[in-house]
Design a protein that fits this description.
- α1 (14-24) crosses α4 (138-152) and α2 (68-79) runs parallel beside α3 (106-116).
- The chain has a single domain (2-183, 216-239), classed as Survival protein SurE-like phosphatase/nucleotidase (Stationary-phase Survival Protein Sure Homolog, Chain: A), CATH 3.40.1210.
- The chain contains six helices and 13 strands.
- The strands form three sheets. Strands 3-4-2-1-5-6-7-13-8 form a nine-stranded mixed β-sheet, with helices on both faces. It has a two-stranded antiparallel ribbon with strand order 9-12. Strands 10-11 form a two-stranded antiparallel sheet.
- It is an alpha/beta fold.
- The structure holds manganese (II) ion (MN).
């Protein structure tokens, strides 16, 4: 089994080393193509207005001066053009990719790019808790293989991927694995901080406050709150089926 690894925190991120350890438990044919710098929040962006460079760090190890999507696209169209991977793993992200946050996620988007190319793709994220005393990626490192094995024996329908989140707990305190749907956040509270830079110019900073979680039953957010690893199948087709007929009526 050939595996391609990528992420959005950059090739030198601690979570990427954890992903490499997990992948080594699954195969000895592991390839790396990840952003050279951190690209968290890049979503599914593709670099269009500047050149993208591919740097070789080893026989199967490359970095890209671009986004997670650039990395997957370049890997599939250059390095692995004639030897496509059977599996793409993206992560292990430093922080959650839960609920409707996933559309911002470079980690999940890299897996979306893999799914678009028809390759089994899985995103992995380690939820963090600033006050915890265990190693940050302990849960992902100890539970990664256990979560991935069953996913490798399951057919993924076309244009789908799987999003995995590990709770912010020591590995031995995790209660199990749950297959859950995507939850949603309450974005009604603002999370933009305004300040002045040393030159006196105003700036804004996003994402500094924790967002309120809506813990509906059977969601990824609820699974985190209950100390479970959350496994969520996602689809690329974002069509809201129920609205098709209602909208069509408006144009009759
Ligand atoms: Mn990230």
């Amino acid at each position: 089994m050939r595996i391609l690894l990528t992420n959005d925190d950059g090739i030198n991120a601690p979570g990427f080393a954890v992903l490499e350890k997990i992948a080594a438990q699954l195969s000895d044919d592991v390839w790396v193509c990840a952003p050279a710098e951190e690209k968290s929040g890049a979503g599914h962006s593709l670099t269009l207005n500047e050149p993208v460079r591919l740097r070789r760090h080893g026989e199967r190890r490359y970095s890209v001066t671009g986004t997670p999507t650039d990395s997957v696209m370049l890997a599939l169209r250059t390095i692995l053009q004639d030897k496509k991977p059977d599996l793409i793993l993206s992560g292990v992200n430093r922080g959650a990719n839960l609920g409707d946050d996933i559309t911002y996620s470079g980690t999940v988007s890299a897996a979306m790019e893999g799914a678009l190319a028809g390759i089994r793709s899985i995103a992995l994220s380690q939820v963090l808790n600033r006050d915890s005393d265990h190693a940050a990626f302990d849960a992902a490192e100890q539970w990664g293989e256990k979560v991935l094995r069953p996913l490798l024996g399951t057919p993924f329908p076309e244009r789908t991927l799987v999003n995995v989140n590990f709770p912010p707990l020591a590995a031995d305190r995790i209660n199990g694995i749950r297959i859950v749907r995507q939850g949603f956040h309450d974005y009604s509270r603002g999370s933009v901080v305004e300040g002045r830079d040393p030159r006196g110019l105003k700036y804004y900073w996003f994402g500094l406050h924790a967002i309120e979680h809506t813990l509906d039953h059977g969601t990824d957010l609820e699974a985190m709150a209950d100390g479970h690893v959350a496994v969520t199948p996602l689809q690329l087709d974002l069509t809201h089926e129920a609205s098709l007929a209602a909208l069509a009526e408006r144009y009759e």
